[in-house]
Amino acid sequence: MTDYARGGEVGKKWIQGANIEKGALHRELGVAQGDKIPEKKLEKAAHSDNPKLAKRARLAETLKSFHH
To answer: Does an H or E element contain 8, and which?
Structure first.
């Protein structure tokens, strides 16, 4: 499967192939596992200097839009 960063297209089921470590964003932000991450904390994390934290936060923002 290719993606936009490599000049290709994103497959229909791209999320199944994503390498996601469950709970990692909660641990990094110090939010309990069952609690929601506050919007401001998520926004701040998306602009973090830590590239892995920023990527996880941006993915969380993207996935949040899937839950109407």
So the answer is: none
Give the number of C-alpha atoms closer than 13 A to the C-alpha of residue 49, restricted to the C-beta side: 0
In angstroms, the CA 23 to CA 34 distance is 10
Query: In this structure, what is the dihedral angle of CA atoms 24, 28, 31, 33, given to the nearest 10 degrees?
Result: 20
Is the model's pLDDT at 1 over the cut of 50? Answer: no
What is the per-residue burial (b if ≥16 Cβ within 10 Å, else e) of 29-68? bebeeeeebeeeebeebbeeeeeebeebbeebeeeeeeee
CB 21 within 8 A of CB 37: no
Record the pTM. 0.72
pLDDT in tens, 12-32: 777 777 778 889 999 999 999
